[in-house]
Design brief:
This protein is mostly helical and 628 residues long. Helix content is 74%, strand content 5%. The strands form two sheets. Strands 1-4-5 form a three-stranded antiparallel beta sheet. It has a three-stranded mixed beta sheet with strand order 2-6-3.
Length: 628
């Protein structure tokens, strides 16, 4: 590198740095806009909280619609009850009374559903109406905040803050630190808050007043009023049924004018109607009381609904919750990245000197590590796939005899076994999907050099080290090229260059740990609990006298053996100590210690769940009961 080239490099470094002034200008403008977005979120949340807590009508949003829905559900239960048992009504007088009740309920149900078109009572139109009122209020408040920001940016404060920021940022020989950048943003935020607090408070009060006024206004809450009226109608219909036809039916039952079947049928349906009438009638009284209180509150305050809203000092203090830049560490890193990208010649010089050689060395490490990594991952996934196929075979056998099993005494046990195996299949599928995604990301790391591009630690450290040396050079350095070369040579022998072999070792260790965790927490856990099924459920099925049940047990035993063969094929060894074997803490885990005269202290009495090892590495310890 010539003398002139060295001087050009140094000049370009400082020149590009000074060129960041325009970037800083945009940077602070973005921070202001971001802060006001956070103010919108904060004030919107405060408005929403006040609207929920300080109004009367919306407190019963759920109850009005739920009460109405409960009545409709009761109607549907009555209809279902009718279809299931109306044939039991053989007494003409009783049948005539009941037909009248049924016809009335059917007509109400059809009218309600035709008028409202509601099939899904999980969607609450009253709640949706309230949310729309609140949402519109929050949008209105956001528009006010935007106007306040526009007013601030047109004033002199913005120009003063910009100049102060640039004077601190564009220092001739250093990059601004994280703490200094944080201070600048905090200063800017404090100035904005001082300017905007009062206008924001006024906008907040006005919005809350309007929102609460609309929420407590019966004319605005058309859905609430409408469903309240519908509920009133249904409660009155229920009252008429219970007082007139219900009493007549009760009298007939009391005088033994009905058959036992008729009495049972009528007793159940009248209980449904009385229960919903009593419960939802009480709800209606509470709701109507709330409606009257809300209406009275509107009249008494003449539209002024804001009663207990925080005062200005509390409001201004709460604005501190809106962080000026919650992702400042990321913002700062982007700032540094933008700065470093100005130094393309320096980056190319670093790469030409040692990056290519280091990448070539790493590619040799990668080829060997990649082979073993992919093999380990494939074997783990294939083992899970094959074991899942065994579980699926059990399910398939069950499906073929499911109708017969339903008639057996062991049906409850069989269904429990099958449901547990279904859960295991789903759990293994989910674990496999997550494992594939996580290991794919780790494999991707094997394809990435520790040198990489400007986003990697290696290049970041190299550029920082070089810059730390360059900024100490004089602007009129006469041997600039030699000075730069000395800085880079020094970096290659420093700790900042990193340890390549350690990086690769860490990558392999991360992948190996992920594979072990997948086996332990995924496959081996499911296999361990499958053993519990064999011990506690399948063993009970072996006592059956039913041929189909015994064939089902044979199928389970077959798949249990297949799973053991699969584990053997992949060099997985079961750890299942026999009675009287000594306890080994590396391979065994004590679930319970018992006093047993037939066993010496420390001997294993029984194995509850097998453990597993692979290549002499214990992945899961066996659960045992040991003698004490």
């Amino acid at each position: 590198m010539s003398k002139n080239a060295g001087l050009t490099l140094t000049n370009r470094i400082f020149g590009k740095w000074m060129g960041l002034a325009a970037y800083f200008d945009r940077f602070f403008a973005m921070r202001q806009s971001e802060y006001f977005r956070r103010l919108k979120q904060l004030i919107g949340a405060k408005i929403n909280t006040v609207c929920i807590n300080d109004n009367a009508l919306s407190a019963y949003d759920m109850e009005i619609f739920e009460a109405y829905g409960n009545v409709v559900d009761a109607y549907r239960m009555v209809i279902a009850h009718h279809l299931n048992g109306v044939q039991n009504l053989t007494t003409p007088e009783i049948r005539n009374i009941w037909d009248g009740i049924y016809a009335l309920i059917m007509s109400r149900l059809m009218q309600d559903e035709n008028d409202e078109g509601i099939d899904d009572f999980s969607i609450n139109p009253i709640l949706a109406e309230k949310r729309e009122i609140v949402a519109q209020s929050i949008i209105s408040a956001a528009d006010c905040i935007d106007e306040i920001l526009t007013e601030y940016k047109s004033g002199k404060n913005w120009g003063i803050m910009r100049q102060n920021g640039l004077s601190q940022l564009l220092v001739a020989d250093e990059i601004i630190s994280f703490a200094e950048l944080e201070n600048l943003i905090n200063d800017m935020t404090e100035d904005l808050k001082l300017f905007a607090s009062k206008p924001l408070y006024n906008a907040y009060l006005q919005t809350v007043e309007t929102a609460l006024g609309n929420l407590n206004n019966l004319e605005q809450r058309k859905a609430a009023a409408g469903y309240n009226n519908l509920l009133k109608e249904e409660i009155e219909i229920l009252r008429q049924i219970i007082v007139v036809q219900g009493m007549a039916l009760d009298k007939a039952i009391w005088k033994n004018e009905t058959t036992p079947e008729e009495a049972a049928f009528l007793g159940e349906v009248l209980a449904i109607l009385r229960e919903v009438y009593q419960k939802e009638g009480q709800a209606l009284n509470r709701i109507n009381k709330a409606f009257m209180e809300a209406a009275a509150r509107n009249r008494e305050n003449m539209g002024r609904i804001v009663m207990d809203v925080e005062d200005f000092d509390d409001f201004a203090s709460s604005l501190d919750e809106a962080e000026p830049c919650s992702n400042l560490p990321i913002v700062y890193e982007n700032f540094k990245t933008s700065y470093i990208e100005k130094y393309t010649p320096l980056k190319e010089y670093l790469q030409n000197l040692f990056v290519d050689d280091k990448k070539a060395y790493e590619s040799k490490l990668a080829a060997k590590a990649m082979y073993f990594a992919k093999k380990s991952i494939w074997q783990s996934s294939q083992m899970v796939h094959e074991c899942t196929a065994c579980f699926a075979a059990i399910i398939e056998h069950y499906e073929d005899s499911k109708e017969h099993f339903a008639t057996t005494e062991e049906n409850g046990i069989i269904k429990g076994v099958v449901e547990t195996i279904f859960i295991k299949i789903d759990a293994l599928k989910d674990a496999s999907v997550a494992f594939d995604e996580e290991t794919a990301a780790l494999i991707e790391e094997f394809n990435a050099s520790t040198v990489g591009d400007t986003q990697t630690d290696f290049i970041q450290n190299a550029l920082k080290y070089a810059f730390d040396g360059l900024i100490n050079l004089s602007r009129d350095e006469k041997r600039g090229a030699q000075a730069v070369k000395a800085i880079i040579d020094s970096f290659l022998t420093s700790e900042s260059a990193g340890n390549t072999q350690k990086v690769w070792g860490d990558r392999e260790a991360k992948l190996a740990k992920k594979v072990i965790n997948f086996k332990r927490d995924g496959l081996f856990f499911e296999l361990s609990t499958f053993e519990e099924i064999m011990h506690y459920s399948v063993s009970r099925l072996r006592e059956s006298l039913d041929l189909h049940v015994l064939e089902f047990v044979v199928e389970i035993d077959k798949q249990y053996k297949n799973i053991e063969d699969i584990l053997t094929k992949y060099d997985i060894e079961k750890i299942a100590p026999k009675p009287h074997e000594p306890f080994n803490a590396k391979e065994h885990e004590v679930l319970m210690a018992e006093k047993n005269d037939d066993f010496k202290k420390g001997e294993i009495i029984k194995t509850m769940n097998s453990g597993y090892r692979h290549n002499d590495v214990v992945i899961v310890r066996a659960n045992v009961i040991a003698a004490r």
